Known about the structure:
Layout: E1 8-11, H1 14-17, H2 31-41, E2 49-51, H3 58-64, H4 67-79, H5 95-115, E3 120-123, H6 144-156, E4 161-165, H7 172-177, E5 184-191, E6 216-220, H8 226-243, E7 247-251, H9 269-285, E8 291-294, H10 301-330
Parallel strand pairs: 1-2, 1-3, 3-8, 4-5, 4-7, 5-6, 7-8
Helix pairs in contact: 2-10, 3-6, 5-6, 8-9, 9-10
Amino acid sequence: MNDPTCRVLLVSGDEIARYGFGDGHPFGTDRHEAFMRELHKRGMDGRVLRASARPATREELEWFHLAAYVDLVRERSVTGHGYLDAGDTPAFRGVYEAASHVVGGTLTAVEAVMAGTARRAFIPIGGLHHAAPERAAGFCVFNDCGVAVHYLRRKHQLKRIAYVDIDAHHGDGVFYAFEDDPDLLFADLHEDGRYLYPGTGRAEETGAGPARGTKLNIPLAPGAEDDEFHLAWARVEEYLLAGKPEFILLQCGADSLAGDPITHLRFTEAAHAHAAARLCVIADELGHGRVVGMGGGGYNRQNLARAWTGVVGAFLDSQAQQGSVGEIAAR
Ligand code: V1S
Ligand code: ZN
């Protein structure tokens, strides 16, 4: 950890690992461990800075969520009974604490990048992109992505923030919350809604009101592979370079890989590494280097472990390249 070029932060630990559902639910609490094991196997756990997640404050949660919904999650957290949505997101004892640590963990990652203690950061159990202000949805209790956008604006006065999403499911919770906000750059590559939840994210959905024409939704046919990913990704790069964001959030759900049990895209883990590497290049070219990755979905444990370690690897490699550019400039 004495290497000064090692400026990639991993936010991990029991506080966020507890976020998950039992009884054969795809989003189990074993996902965190599957990722950590792979990181260790590849010798990468010693190359990253580490932090545990803090809980989000009530005020932070209410930047995105309605107070009445936050209260409901708190109440259900005591009994652990019932669902928080129409059948995908069961309550469990301690769900409030676990879900608020996921939000706080994403804020920990964002804070570190803004403070300059890390240039990039990654949180495996973040990216809960379906949660809406007034309700849970699709395994997502609190929307850490949405709270992070508000955080960057309120605490750091950033205006133009990019949210990039390569999870197989459309990031509807983020999209509709910022639908009329022209300064939230939104690029989402996802399986189209013919068979898959949530069914939103058509290409024609480009934003509303003053933001009409400013968002990029790229639905892909079931079975789409890396070739289709790369074609779509080129459009994401063009969009970001034109939009000049001051911070980039990446939701890198691994359920877009072939072999996921609940989706039908067929990317390989190279797509995720490519997205992460290219976002680092873009952020560096924009002069700030700020990129935070959030794990998102992914229900085949081997896939999520490989895709997310690939993202962390790309962050580390981009740091090493940054170091060598600096060394060359100093000569
Ligand atoms: N796609 C999908 C899918 N699979 C399930 C599911 C499968 C097994 C279970 F035991 C419980 C649920 N639910 C869904 C989707 C929600 C997907 C959420 C993905 C989250 C993310 O990866 O994007 C980010 C973390 N829900 C539905 O398809 C809705 C239903 C229509 C079907 C399932 N029942 C349980 C509820 C209604
Ligand atoms: Zn997903």
